Amino acid sequence: MNCKSKSINNRNLGSAHNGTEHFIQQRVSSVMLIILCTWLVCSVIYISRAPVERLTSFISSPFHVTAAIMFIAYFLLHGTQGLQVVIEDYVHCKALKYTMLFLLNFVCIATFIISVVAILDVRTLVN
Amino acid sequence: MNSAYNKQNSSRPLSPHLTIYRPQITSVLSILHRISGVVLFFGLLFLLWSIIFLIYTPESANSWLWKFLNSKAGIGIIIAWSYSLFFHACTGIRHLFWDIGYGFSLKAVTWSGWLALFTSLTLTIISWLAIFLYI
Prior knowledge:
Oligomer: heterodimer
Shape of chain A: elongated
Shape of chain B: extended
Distance between the termini of chain B: 69 Å
Strand content of chain A: under 5%
Order of helices and strands of chain B: HHHHH
Radius of gyration of chain B: 21 Å
């Protein structure tokens, strides 16, 4: 019995040589998200059920707008990377897997850009 | 050869025999961390696109989405989302401690698991009390 597998079966199936970067990127974004989620929770408590003046001053503050955009960016980055791992773990059909990964990438970028546009539009409306 | 291998294996039971496996705090939190991550991602997409929709809809206060988000079901969804946020953050901090090499003993994984569960519940309750009691 031949115990050796044909090399053709194993080619291009092994390490993609980019797992470490993915791992480190996920940890870096998770540390950033601890800080940004603290900001999010405090801000939501601060502006929910608040008078309109507080809301407009919140929206026109450059600090809070930067924090909001950073939160969305890091959240989408971290979430996309996490969902990528989930898809790679559970979806075994190649065509479906790559379609889902493509869609995930598209949704992430599209959501980020429209969120930034919407935030800036609200800012011009308030100012 | 490859297809015969797959056919043989597809009918076999998968290794963690989930139907007869006793749930433990470690394994349950592990899968809930992953599930809460997926919930958070789709929940954020829903919330972001809702806000964007409301921003660009004229008379948005009369729209069905605004009414839904302000109904009991809508607020319930946001509270559930916030709980998954706190839960994922607490178990994520636990994962970060493991990544730098702390807390691997059986005793430590058990108490840190219960601590994460308790902290996430407490933070959710405190935050929503702050929102509902704060004027």
